[in-house]
Amino acid sequence: MNNLPSWSTPQKPVEITYHRLVQSILNGSLPADSNLPNEHQLAEALGVTRSTLREVLQRLSANGMVEIQHGKPTRVRNIWLEGNMNTLSTIIQTQHASLTIRWVPQILEVRLALAPQYARLAVLHNAPQLAQEIEKLIASLVDEPQAYIKADWQLHHRLTVLSTNPIYTLILNGFRDYYKLMAVKYFAQPEARDASREFYTRLHQAAIQIDSTAAFHIVQQVMQQSIELWEKAIVHEEIE
Questions:
Q1: Of the segments 43-47, 173-177, 183-187, which one has the largest average pLDDT value?
Q2: Domain-by-domain residue ranges, the chain?
Q3: What does the pLDDT look like over 17-59, one tens digit per residue?
Q4: CATH architecture of the region 99-239
Q5: What CA–CA distances, in Å, run from 166 to 33, 173, 179, 205?
Q6: pLDDT (tens digit, 9 = 90+) per residue, 58-67?
Q7: Using CA atoms, how far apart are residues 211 and 205, in angstroms rounded to an integer?
């Protein structure tokens, strides 16, 4: 028994159907604002039972991809105008590799808008605890991409928690999968790791001094720098 190969678990009909419909919405086969066929027709076309289809449609509704209208056909949402954080997670999980390069600048711009403020609040409300946590982070950090990926996510997550505004944490968590994908390429650059280590040190000092204004400007600066370093990484990759 111990010598058996490692087999992957077969996908269930719900998962297969869900991914087929998500892909059809993303590639435009099911256009935005169009109506899906009735349950009987759609279930037959997909080769599943109506109960399976209903479960999938409920999941798509929760993810912001369709609108279930009682007494009316189910409508495909315009996900770019009507989507939510669940929609973003769905897109990332389904097409993460092909969307990474295209979306990174937009994601970094969002972080540039949010991170300075949640860092300011974290220092304002929980400076001593933040200083201790950053000190431990710096002490345990080794110069390799995976270590920085883990440390950087941990720091930003803790900043949102220590800001005392849970909405920041929820927003950041929505980008978790996407962050991990782009961070691999980003922290492969020694320059990016050096910049982040300097950032952690400067933020640590701001926390020790309980200087929330300095924290805001430090984070704002490094977020802008991260956009420039990402663009440099992409140019380097294209040249190679």
A1: 43-47
A2: 13-82, 99-239
A3: 999 999 899 888 999 999 999 999 999 999 999 999 999 999 9
A4: Up-down Bundle (1.20)
A5: 33, 11, 19, 25
A6: 999 999 999 9
A7: 9
As a whole number of angstroms, the distance between CA 137 and CA 152 comes to: 9
Strand 66-67 to strand 75-76: parallel, antiparallel, or no bridges (unpaired)?
A: antiparallel
Q: CA quadruple 130, 133, 139, 145: dihedral positive or negative?
A: negative
Adjacent-strand bridge partners of 35: 75
pTM: 0.75
**How deeply is 162 buried, as exposed, middle or buried, from its count of CB atoms within 10 A (0-12, 13-18, 19+)?**
buried
Q: What is the dihedral of CA 222, 225, 230, 236, to 10 degrees?
A: -140
**Class at the top of the CATH hierarchy for domain 13-82:** mainly alpha
